[in-house]
Amino acid sequence: MKVSYNWLKDYIEFSYSPVELSEKLTMVGIEVEAIRQTVPEFDGIIVAKVLTVDDHPNADKLSVCKVDTGTGTYSVICGAPNVAAGQLVPFAPTGTRLPVGITIRKTKIRGIDSVGMICSEQELGMADHSDGIWILPDGWQIGADVQKKLAELQDYILELSITPNRPDAMSMIGIAREIAAIVNRPLKYPEISLNETAEKAADVISVDIDDIHGCPRYTARVIRGVTLGSSPAWMANRLRAAGMRPINNIVDITNYVLLEFGQPLHAFDMAEISDHKIIVRASKPGEVFTTLDDKQRGLPENTVMICDAEKTVAIGGIMGGQNSEVSETTVDILLESAYFTPMRISAASKRLGLSSEASQRFEKGVDPEAVVTASDRAAAMMAEFAGGKVLSGIVDAYPVKVPKRNIPVRVNRINHVLGTDLTEETVTDYLRRLQISFTDGIVTAPSFRPDIEREIDVIEEVARSMNFDNIPTKPLSMLPYDLPVNRDDRLLDILRANLRELGFYEVLTNSMIPQRDLDGIDDRQPVKILNPISDDLNVMRTSLFPGLLKVLSHNINRNMEDLRIFELGRVFEKIKSTDDISQVYKVAMLIHGARHAGTWDTEPLDIDFYDIKGIVEAFKAKIALDNLEFILYSNKVYFDREQTVELKLGREILGHFGRIDQAVCKRFDIDSDVFGCELDVPLLLTHLSGQRMYQQFSRFPYVEKDLAFVVNRDINADQLYQVIYETGRPLVNFIEAFDLYQGDRLPEDKKSLAFRIRFQSTERTLTDAEVNTVFQKIIRMVQKKLPATLRE
To answer: What is the pTM of this model?
Structure first.
């Protein structure tokens, strides 16, 4: 909504600048989105008089005009239809730059010179649209600077964003009422002086309301003997400033009162109203109607219609019809001012796809008690500016009155909500400023405020009136609003952080997947969705791998092949012989591509099984996970039978890692090697404390010795590692397997495993004798506990 700064001063005295006023209004809930000057900055435009207007000899729609600027006479080609001799007009001499960005130059149009330009309001940046040149008021001096003359008319337009619950703010008086509350001064309503004739309106017209639910109140006035013409310049300027195009004095007056009071009006040509009778009814099935915009519209059921004795003349609260519109032949006016039910207007407007300034106000809720006041205001203006005679009285059909809303309000509740210490007298004063009555604990909501229905609405009005900035800020409770961090959530964040530090990117995939992604791959029983959105989302995932493999395939197909991705989320599985469903957290990782990119002198090196093994070992070390066993395994879904390792914590299986089976990869359109790992998060969390224990490293030098054993092929390195460590501690603090040999020099059922053992004390420098003693002890114990021999 657009509001004129100068116009507001007709109703309330205030000293705020436009910027200050916008800040004040915004603070009380009327948001000001922009401030615009009505007179833009321009230079060089002068007042000129049109001396003659002749037809252009070579163009049907152009005129050759002679204009007097006070310092000379110029020939100008003009295409405006409203140019005429004797007019005062804004003239741009050659070299002038217009606000719209055009620089005026001497030119030749169809063989005739044109020096300068007669301007419209649009070309001067004062209107969005102009039908012709701007005709200046009589009395302006020829040759005067137009900018200086217009400075006296400078206004500021405040563009407001009105919330749907505040229809009262969709008018000049509504905004002035808000300012009156801010400055605590009385509102000045426009004076309405009606000199009515002896003839009574009730003797000329009648009103019947058949649809009282759609139209609780309908009033009609009669103004005789009007003369259609142009509106006064001040009225036309105010309408333009509000974004409305002036049409004629009758229509302009109805629009002016609409902007002023927020009450839509409609003027009918009374000669077109059959039997001078108005009937308000609901639309009939299949009914059609031609509106003012010359469109025939099918009417939705239950649309409020305004009819005379023979025909429909308007869609109530939305738009009038061509068959009763005011025209140049109109003499007598039937003036409608009504209250329509908001829900009925809103429904009809949406179904018709038709919105107007009237419907926007009716569907939010106008003031049912302002209907007569607005009608009186418009009738008085029609008498003053259109020469009409107002018939005595108003026909007011109001069969069922809109009830007043009385709301119990507790002052202690206001103070509790706002954190204030207001007295009843102070609350009464704050509400009085907004024209809200508060007596004996009861608030009577004014008829122009349909949004005030409950006690909390009244509390909001008190807060607005006292200004939100003045509400004290103090703690009203000692409740802790920061929730304590859940232990498991903290540990999950630790897992994510450590994987990111290992170079992995986290992805999030859908918990719902298609059944076909599991068929032939995963033999576990998935949870089926009873009412799936689509076949692509018909079961819950039993593993994180299907989603991760889709992400991997998507990236590979877009030439992003070197990837490390992980996901931490729930998987779902039916528990056998029960209706229960397990929802366990898992963490899964996938790696693909090159271990490192190639350079000018090296080839890229592809990842293999030992990359995923190294990642799992690094992850294990980062989260300080002890006693983790790596066991070769050959019967796990998703993984290659030849390259799968089971991870055990004590007697429980933590998860698996290895190469993803080639058949599984091909199902997801992947033709290269993929390595992955999936871990059970609850089991992982039971072995994590989230705490880190540190011990001082030794200040003394260490001694390293290498040792190789020949063992059976079914013995793994971890078995040797455990014996070496248990035998050598506390002096042995580091063991590394660095060589595996299987070949011609050994029997087929044997292999050689070599270890590097580090000896170190935290208390002293070890002697050779001490180291050799422990070293020999390790050899004997390995040979005793395992079928192993020392390799020569």
So the answer is: 0.59
